[in-house]
């Protein structure tokens, strides 16, 4: 592997481990255990695990390690740990580093399951959690304390697409020695600059753009080798959140085409946002790549592209939004995102339905808001479908 390779090349070649057969496609090591030449060799491996040695699939596996090495290379990070799902990655990254009495500051604008981990799981075990408006740097400054252990945020919020000034938040956090953990799903590994902007730990749901074809659940935590192997790995290998070898192979295949897919989807998302802007049946079109997005400048600075997701606020509220959704013929109603197929959802009644109305109002999740994950279909076909569904309102 060459560190000078660009990300598309890294996505195809990084991390490859070939067996004695010299296979072209990465091998799937479907095994839960490994054998040793002798009792002494087994004892030695448990005492000190070598660079390319394995003892149990929950602790590590050659196929999984290929995926970890490849995503770390794409991110420009030292190491990574692959997990069973994106939420296993969020939980693993936070829970592995926090204990009773610790303090964490988090943006309020989070995916519902992330909120559950912070509000219900961490507080249950004595972690103090403070929520702030992620866009308000004064709130971050006021919330961070000398004993703050970590800060957590989505670099682009789900579903309202707010873009937090990561560099500024990281500076505030690092002044008190706090670790900056970011959920970077909407930014994607293709457009990510989170580590450059000051993030210490990056979390992805590999289910989304990394797989990108609706096949498997997976997640990954990216960071320094010390954090991954000394903090994350001991927690996850004992609590069982590791990725399966077959899933890792799927994710490896996804990484080979990820940049081509994501760039094509992003081009289409931009075209749709521009074409739908000003439509009287929409209260607003939200996309980080258009000039009227409130954080367009921040998005341009900390991402290499605006991403594959846009939000449409249907005038007329929930009833109009449901008529719009039900009239779509090409775009699929589902709660996933980052897929080759265009997917749309109504967050107020699905992914964020557990939030109180006051919180949804605060986060901009109106009854008319729909989140559109743009796929690989022809842009004109997608635009025709969206306009036809708007006509049906």
Description of the structure:
The protein is of the alpha/beta class. It has two domains: 7-254, 3-Layer(aba) Sandwich (Aspartate Aminotransferase, domain 2), CATH 3.40.640.10; 259-391, Alpha-Beta Complex (Aspartate Aminotransferase, domain 1), CATH 3.90.1150.10. 40% of the residues lie in helices and 15% in strands. It has 14 helices and twelve strands. It has helices at residues 7-13, 39-47, 62-75, 86-95, 112-124, 137-143, 166-174, 188-191, 225-239, 245-276, 296-302, 317-327, 357-363, 379-391, and strands at residues 79-83, 103-107, 128-132, 148-154, 179-183, 201-205, 219-223, 282-286, 309-314, 332-333, 343-345, 369-373. The protein has a seven-stranded mixed beta sheet with strand order 1-7-6-5-4-2-3, with helices on both faces. β4 (148-154), α7 (166-174) and β5 (179-183) form a beta-alpha-beta unit. α1 runs antiparallel to α10 (245-276) and α10 (245-276) crosses α14. The longest helix has 32 residues, at 245-276. The protein is globular and about 75 Å long. 49% of the residues are buried. The model has no long low-confidence stretch (mean pLDDT 95).
């Amino acid at each position: 592997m060459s560190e000078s390779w660009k990300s598309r090349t890294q996505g195809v070649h990084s991390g490859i481990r070939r067996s004695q057969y010299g296979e072209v496609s990465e091998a799937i090591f479907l095994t839960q255990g490994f054998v040793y030449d002798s009792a002494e060799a087994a004892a030695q491996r448990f005492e000190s695990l070598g660079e390319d040695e394995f003892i149990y699939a929950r602790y590590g596996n050659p196929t999984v390690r290929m995926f970890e090495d490849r995503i770390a290379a794409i991110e420009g990070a030292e190491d990574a740990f692959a997990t069973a799902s994106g939420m296993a990655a969020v939980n693993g990254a936070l829970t592995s580093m926090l204990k009773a009495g610790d303090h964490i500051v988090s943006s309020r604008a989070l995916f519902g399951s992330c909120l559950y981990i912070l509000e219900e799981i961490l507080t249950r075990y004595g972690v103090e959690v403070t929520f702030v408006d992620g866009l308000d740097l004064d709130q971050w400054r006021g919330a961070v304390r000398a004993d703050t252990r970590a800060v957590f945020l989505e670099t682009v919020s789900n579903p309202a697409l707010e873009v937090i000034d990561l560099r500024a938040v990281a500076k505030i956090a690092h002044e008190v020695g706090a670790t900056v953990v970011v959920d970077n799903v909407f930014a994607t590994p293709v457009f990510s600059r989170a580590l450059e902007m000051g993030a210490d730990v990056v979390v992805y749901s590999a289910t989304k753009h990394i797989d990108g074809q609706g096949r498997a659940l997976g997640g990954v935590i990216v960071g320094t080798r010390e954090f991954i192997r000394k903090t994350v790995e001991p927690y996850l290998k004992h609590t069982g959140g590791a990725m399966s070898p077959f899933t890792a192979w799927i994710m490896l295949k996804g990484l080979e085409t990820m940049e081509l897919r994501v760039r094509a989807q992003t081009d289409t998302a931009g075209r749709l946002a521009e074409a739908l802007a000003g439509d009287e049946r929409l209260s607003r079109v939200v996309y980080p790549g258009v000039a009227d997005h409130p954080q367009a400048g921040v998005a341009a600075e900390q991402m290499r592209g605006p991403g594959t997701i846009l939000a449409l606020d249907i005038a007329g509220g929930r009833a109009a939004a449901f008529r719009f959704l039900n009239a779509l013929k090409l775009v699929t109603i589902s709660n996933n995102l980052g897929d080759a197929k265009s997917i749309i959802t109504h967050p107020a009644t699905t992914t964020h339905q557990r939030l109180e109305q006051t919180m949804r109002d605060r986060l901009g999740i109106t009854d008319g808001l729909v989140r559109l994950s743009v796929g690989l279909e022809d842009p004109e076909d997608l635009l025709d479908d969206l306009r036809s569904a708007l006509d049906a309102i």
